[in-house]
Write a structure and sequence with these properties.
about 40% helix; mainly alpha; 5 helices
């Protein structure tokens, strides 16, 4: 699949939950190991369909937005790395 290069629904949910791109990157990174932390530019690239998020980042985004399903936030073409049974270590 090809990257969509379109604005994703995630862009609407970030300010709704009182986040900026920078604070959202920090919130997502809090659910990830240090070597997988995301930056503000990573968040912007995901929002505009320019980057495939990893399975861990997908799950961390869901957790950061109070469990909103990722299917609502991103187009299916961006979810190629999704693993349905993936659970982060922090959930164990």
């Amino acid at each position: 699949m090809v990257l969509p290069f379109r604005r994703q629904q995630l862009a609407k949910f970030i300010p709704f939950h009182d986040y900026t791109s920078e604070t959202f990157a920090e919130a997502v990174s809090s659910f990830l190991p240090d070597d997988e932390a995301v930056s503000k530019s990573d968040v912007q690239n995901i929002i505009y369909g320019r980057r495939y998020p990893s399975a861990n980042v997908i799950r961390a985004i869901e957790l950061s937005l109070a469990g909103i399903p990722i299917d609502v936030l991103l187009q299916p073409s961006l979810l190629i790395n999704r693993v349905r049974d993936l659970r982060l270590e922090c959930e164990s």
